[in-house]
Predict the structure.
Amino acid sequence: MNCPHCSNSNKYIIKSGIRQTQEGIIQKYYCKHCKKYFTDKTQPYTHYPLHIILYTLQQYNKGYPVKKTKTLTGKKYRYSPPERTIYSWIKRYQNTLTFLKIRKQYTIDPENVTTTQRFHHQQIYPFTYHHLKLNLRSKQLPQLKRYINWVERKLPTTMFLSGPRASQYHTKQDVNIKQKETIASDLTRFALAMQKKNQSAHEAVEQFFLLNDSSTVCVELPVFLKPDETKLFDIDTPLTGHIDIIQIRNNKLFIMDYKPNLRHPERYAGQLMAYKQALHHRTQISEDNIITAVFNEHAYYELNS
C-alpha cells in the first residue's frame, strides 16, 4: 500500500482506527512521512463481519453448493446469510478471490479439493496441491505437474534432514527489484483476517491462496539444488528448501515467498535465486519463464537478476 498524498510505501503507513461511511466501516491510515490521513475504500464492511463473509466464500470455493454453504456458516457462527446475499458476495469478491470465477464452471468434491503430504524436514512442511487448478494450469507448463507427481511419490528426504538451506544464503549479484500492484496483498489481508488462534501466519496465507486464488496450484513445494547445478552458490552438498507458494499465470511460473516483515526485499534475493535455479533443474522450465517474488499484506515485489 502506498500513501496517496506522497506515494511513500508501507514502511511509513500505520493503521489509525476506522471510519463510518454510508458504504460501511472502512479502515483509516496515517502516513508518518507526510503526516496525513487517508482511508482504504476498496474493502468497506457490511453488517456481516469480514471473516464471516470470507469463511462463507471459502466453503463455496471448496465445492459446497450455496445452500450447503449457508448451512455450514450458520453452524459455525450465529449468522446464516440468505442465499441471495451469498450470491452477491460471490459477485462482489470474484476479482480478488479469483477462484470464484472458475468455481462456477465445475462440480468439485469438497472432500478431495486438495492433497497434502507432510514432510518432516527438520520441521513439518505440509506440501499441498489443488487438483483442479493443477490440471487446468498445467496445460501451460506440464513440467510442473510431472515434478509435483514425482515429489509425491519419490522425493528422497535424506538430503532435507541436514545440510544447507536456501533461506540461509545471500548473494552479491545485482538484482532488479520492482514493486507491483497485484491482488497478492489483498489476498494476504483476507487470509490474516481468517487466521486461527493456533495457526501460523504462513499457514493461514498459504491455505487461503490455495483455496481462493485461481493461479495458486501448490504450497510448500520442496526443491533441491545440487552442487554441480550452480555457480552462484559455493556448496558441496545439495541446497534444499520449501517454496511457500507456486502460481502459474500468463504461461509463466511464479515462485512467491510470504515475508511478514518486508522492509528490505533485497535480503531475500539469494533464497529466491536458489529456488529459481532448483526449480529450473527439477522441471527443465526455462529460467526466463520463472518469476520470483516476495510479498506481505502491504506490498508485492518481483526480484529478477
Remarks:
- The chain has three domains: 1-45, 50-103, 113-304.
- The radius of gyration is 20 Å.
- The chain is about 30% helix and 25% strand.
- Residues 257 and 294 are 5 Å apart (CA to CA).
